[in-house]
Amino acid sequence: MTDYLVDNSAWSRYIQAMPHVVARLDRIALSPADLFVTCPPQVLELCHSARNLAEHRRAQQAIAYGFPLPNHPDKTTVLAIQQALWAAGKVRAAGPLDILIAAYAVLNDAVVISCDRDFCHLARAYPALRQEYLPPVS
Are 125 and 94 in contact (CB under 8 A)? Predict the structure, then answer.
């Protein structure tokens, strides 16, 4: 069984009906062995993309289908990931929310799916992070 934490970059392309992203996320949804999971910074990031109150509510409803991750990172884990970016010379390659999302994924053994390179940089710097990159166009 695999838990998938889907980044906003992938959800937005799913909503835009990009075929390869829709196909990948639908395969996860249909798999009895896989789950979509959520964490507070991921929910916050998705809801931040809303352009009005109605979209904000729809985003909250949509993300509610994911299972909340049980383990929450402390500052030691988050700062270790950020420090790994510093050591790799990529400190600005991922923002604070993505670092926090990565920490949730690592602590809960989840795979982050994204359509931007932020999590690729994070995984190179912090190999405990499992991630799957879906190109934004196919």
Answer: no
